[in-house]
Amino acid sequence: MARNLQLYRGRIISPLAGGGTLDESDGALLVNAAGRIEYAGPYPGCPTGDEIVEYRNPDALILPGMIDTHVHAPQFPLRAQWSGELLNWLENVVFPFEARFSDADLARRVARDFFAAALKQGTTTMAVFSTVHAEATSICFDEAFKSGIRALIGKSMIDMCAPPDLTHSDKQNMADMEALARQWHKVDNGRLQYCVTPRYAGSCSRRLLRDCGDFARVNNLPVQSHLAENRAELDFVHSRHSYASGYTDIYARAGLLGERTIMAHAIYVPDADLDVLADSDTALAHCPCSNRFLQSGVMALRKYQERGLRIGLGSDVAGGWTLSMFNEMREAIESAKTWNFMHPESERPAPTALEALRLATLDGARALGLDGTIGSLEAGKEADFLLCTAPKEESRREGVDSTEKKLSELVYSTTAPSIQAAYIRGACVFLQGAL
Ligand code: GUN
Ligand code: FE
Question: Among 185, 222, 346, 435, which residue has the least CB neighbours within 10 Å?
Answer without folding.
Answer: 346
